[in-house]
């Protein structure tokens, strides 16, 4: 520990796996996610010991394509337990980038704390030429250790950018600049641990959220159906048969569907499913009652949320109510 380290904040790292802990097989192409321990990752960035006292807890060792409701519930419980420790200043969560935006938004809605919670991953495995994980991890620790980051909700740090959980989306399959803030902009920039902070988030999160998963062992099933030209009703009917309580439509354009699929979605709503219209476009707001009569058909508009985030909010909303108007209000508030 460096001189004066007794004054450093105490942080916990919850490890879940991902490419940041990945190892290549042949040195250039394929790799195995979650191959390295977090201690091995930290050994590549000894500079973090000047930022914080770090302790590590493994919650999972998976590629984030395997992230599921059970792991979310376990992660939320471990994160909340850490945040409830008054001597802990913040949390860093290592995570694969594929579903990081969903996990970040989930935690943003269910954790009760003002402390910084930072998800971090990497696009290149730890053994790659110019791996991005070490700098991302250094920046994530710097962000989590910073008292100014309190009350900003759950954050994602990658590629020298700080993103709000609600705004961040993975937009590229392989490039290190994959994360974009699709609507309301970045939380800030972080250059080798130095910050440039932008405006705080505007929607409700963490300490002001009404959602809690304490004591839950499962979340309601919500399926996403992706719309396309020539779509029929088969996949929407399949979601109903599979027992979904909610359905998110990744609609074309402004959350639209062709006639056959629209009839199926209206039938699903009549049978009691909460049906949310989102958009597959990757940007923009889906408003109520523009081309589709949401009032008449009993649909909910996703507002700014992309389909995968709309699914998270609908799952949590359904833990509280099945009332369409109340669910719609959640989409305007969070
Ligand atoms: C994953 O999400 O676990 C794989 C991809 C990545 O971490 O970049």
Describe this structure in words.
By secondary structure, the chain is α/β, with parallel strands linked by helices. It folds into 2 domains: 8-208, L-asparaginase, N-terminal domain (Rossmann fold); 222-333, Rossmann fold (3-Layer(aba) Sandwich). Helix content is 27%, strand content 22%. It contains 9 helices and 16 strands. It is globular. The model has no long low-confidence stretch (mean pLDDT 96). Succinic acid (SIN) binds at residues 18-19, 33, 63-65, 96-98, 121, 123. Succinic acid binds at residues 18-19, 33, 63-65, 96-98, 121, 123.
| Biggest sheet descriptor | 8 strands, mixed
**Apparent shape:** globular
Mean pLDDT rating: 96
Count helical runs: 9
The first-level CATH class of the largest domain is given as Alpha Beta
| Assigned CATH superfamily of the largest domain | L-asparaginase, N-terminal domain
Q: Strands of the largest sheet, in order across it?
A: 4-1-5-6-7-8-11-12
Radius of gyration: 20 Å
What is the share of helical residues?
A: 25-40%
Low-confidence stretches: none
Total domain count: 2
**What is the string of helix and strand elements?**
EEEHEHEHEHEEEEEEEHEHEHEHH
- Counting DSSP E segments of at least 2 residues, the number of strands comes to 16
């Amino acid at each position: 520990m460096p001189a004066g380290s007794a004054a450093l904040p105490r942080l916990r790292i919850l490890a879940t796996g991902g490419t940041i802990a990945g190892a290549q097989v042949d040195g250039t192409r394929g790799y195995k996610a979650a191959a390295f321990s977090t201690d091995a990752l930290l050994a590549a960035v000894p500079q973090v010991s000047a930022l914080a006292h770090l302790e590590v807890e493994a919650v999972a060792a998976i590629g984030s394509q395997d992230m599921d409701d059970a792991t979310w519930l376990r992660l939320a419980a471990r994160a909340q337990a850490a945040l409830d420790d008054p001597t802990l200043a913040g949390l860093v969560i290592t995570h694969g980038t594929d579903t990081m935006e969903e996990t970040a938004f989930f935690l943003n809605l269910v954790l009760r704390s003002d402390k910084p919670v930072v998800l971090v991953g990497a696009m290149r495995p730890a053994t790659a030429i110019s791996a991005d994980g070490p700098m991302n991890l250094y920046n994530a620790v710097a962000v989590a250790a910073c008292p100014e980051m309190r009350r900003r909700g759950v954050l994602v740090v990658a590629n020298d950018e700080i993103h709000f959980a609600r705004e961040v989306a993975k937009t590229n399959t392989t490039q290190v600049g994959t994360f974009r803030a699709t609507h309301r902009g970045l939380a800030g920039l972080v250059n080798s641990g130095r910050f440039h902070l932008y405006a705080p988030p505007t929607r409700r999160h963490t300490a002001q959220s009404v959602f809690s998963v304490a004591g839950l062992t499962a979340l309601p099933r919500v399926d996403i159906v992706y719309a396309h030209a020539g779509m029929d009703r088969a996949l929407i009917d399949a979601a109903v048969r599979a027992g979904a309580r909610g359905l998110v439509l990744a609609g074309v354009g402004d959350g639209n569907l062709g006639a056959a699929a629209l009839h199926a979605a209206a039938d699903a709503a009549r049978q009691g499913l909460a049906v949310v219209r989102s958009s597959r476009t990757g940007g923009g707001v889906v408003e109520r009652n523009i081309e589709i009569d949401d009032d008449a058909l009993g649909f909910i508009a996703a507002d700014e949320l992309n389909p995968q985030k709309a699914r998270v909010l609908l799952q949590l909303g359904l833990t509280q109510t099945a009332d369409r108007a109340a669910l719609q209000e959640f989409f305007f508030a969070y």
